[in-house]
Design goal:
By secondary structure, this protein is α/β, with parallel strands linked by helices. The protein has helices at about 5-10, 30-40, 60-65, 85-95; strands at about 15-20, 45, 75-80, 100-105.
């Protein structure tokens, strides 16, 4: 059982998480360095999914990368861009890849982001 899960299930434990944004491109170096600074200081790291409606690497891909460095990820999933079938399909991916923590969110309005003409 992960340290995060144990902490969540232990009454009276103050659980600490931090948020890290995935990169806007394909190079995860900066994200990995930021998460490494948090390792041992937090129980888990939240990986945002289209935060502020800005394009970035998928939360799942970023979560798998951080997991390979021994960092417990919480894969955020924005419901804004997915229908019911898409949500169900996207929930199977983390399970298959060993990511056990999901935080489902409504998501920020598309007009707030860097692609204001996009549809949600």
């Amino acid at each position: 059982m992960s340290l995060f899960r144990t902490a969540c299930l232990t009454p009276g434990t103050f659980v600490i998480t931090a948020e890290v944004a995935p990169p806007k491109g394909a190079d995860p170096t900066h994200m990995i360095e930021m998460a490494k600074c948090l390792k041992g200081r937090v129980h888990a790291v939240n990986i945002t999914d289209g935060s502020r409606a800005v394009l970035g690497m998928s939360s799942l891909a970023a979560s798998v990368i951080l997991k390979s460095y021994g960092i417990e990820p919480i894969c955020q999933m924005s419901c804004r861009d997915r229908n019911q079938i898409g949500l169900q399909a996207d929930l199977l991916g983390p399970m298959a890849l060993g990511v056990r923590n999901i935080l489902a969110l409504t998501g920020d309005p598309v007009k707030a982001g860097d692609h204001p003409k996009a549809k949600s």
